[in-house]
Amino acid sequence: MEKSTKKAIMMVDHNKKYSPDFFNHLPDKVLWFILSLLPIDEAVRTSILSKRWRSTPFTLILMSYPLTRLTSSPGSHLEFIFNLDKEKGVYRYNILCFTLMKKHVGNLTSCRFAHFPFIDVTACLSVLLEQEKGLKDLTLECQSIGTMSKPNLPIRFNTWNYLSALESFELVRYTLKYPSSFETLFRKLRTLKLKEIQIGDEIFNGILRSTSLENFTLLQSSGFTKIEIKSSSLKFLELNFLCVSHIEISTPNLKVLVLASLSCPAKNLVLGVQNLSEFHCYSNQQISTSSHVPKTHKLLEYWTGLLECKREKIFRNLSSLSIDLDLNNVREALSLSYLLRTSSCLQTLKIVIPLNVVHIKGFTGKDLEVDFIKYLITRSTRIKKITIICESSLDEANKLLSVNNASSKLFIQLMVDKRAT
């Protein structure tokens, strides 16, 4: 009798399809805060939004619009909102995003748009900028599709004035052709991040003339021939994976500087950063082999006065330093010694040494172990040999042989620990 009772209980639990919906009993403000942390497609699939969003004005502080889903039908998870054919799923999702923006009545402070190059999001952005006067943080990202060219920034000219209240602005994969009067257009902008941007010299110089900009990041961008940054407000600067003929940085209040994979002659990279406290410099973070990217020690030779004694002492207030050097090379070690002589305030020193050989023992094939080795294979450009000693079976380790190598000289050796078997 006891066995049959247990069996009956198990059958009831197994056939139970839905658990109690506790979220629907929460106050509106709590619900909208939870939803604001979700991407929009995840939010609309919840029973909360499907049952209550039409009749209740909702307030969010953050929205994320992954419009890259526009090319695929949202399928059954949107059938409770728009009962349309699957062929019209693209329009259904677009209407949903637009309707949610019009329905929003709160003080939205942060928003992110992600879309494909051939999707027009100009109308949605115009509504957003005109309606959300308190918007402080905006991210626009165009997804990369093969060799398709970067589209123009999807903002209409008559809505440019609404950007003047932004404090943080991030752009990914666009061609910038907006007015060059950047310093007057973005009067309150504190943080600007440009990644994979096509931009001309005139517009680029307008950006650098901004008197309010404190944090500036420029990654993998092109269209300009030289970089001249002269700003008293800038406190953080990152230049990464750029190809230019001349770089001059004159920022007396700059505190953090990151330079990585810059294709620029060492003698043409001039620094005027007397109050710098944190410095990161890497020559091979994203480019495995290139004669156009000067090594870190060559840059240090110019900056420390090893080659030119008239150079200013730019590292006298430096407290943290992170560089990639091979200390087995006498010349590279010498450049470091000269830097240390001029850095009397240095407290933290991090030296990134190129990884050549890795020996891993006790491999069991767990997810974190596999992910770690994949990271080494796909990111280490100079690694030559990885030896993996498995506890029992080579099944999981064999899958690593098909992973694309970042290093052309990599040799992977798989072994089984005989003592473990």
From TrEMBL:
<dbReference type="InterPro" id="IPR006566">
    <property type="entry name" value="FBD"/>
</dbReference>
<dbReference type="InterPro" id="IPR036047">
    <property type="entry name" value="F-box-like_dom_sf"/>
</dbReference>
<dbReference type="Pfam" id="PF08387">
    <property type="entry name" value="FBD"/>
</dbReference>
<feature type="domain" description="F-box">
    <location>
        <begin position="20"/>
        <end position="70"/>
    </location>
</feature>
<dbReference type="InterPro" id="IPR001810">
    <property type="entry name" value="F-box_dom"/>
</dbReference>
<protein>
    <submittedName>
        <fullName>F-box protein</fullName>
    </submittedName>
</protein>
<dbReference type="Pfam" id="PF00646">
    <property type="entry name" value="F-box"/>
</dbReference>
<dbReference type="InterPro" id="IPR053772">
    <property type="entry name" value="At1g61320/At1g61330-like"/>
</dbReference>
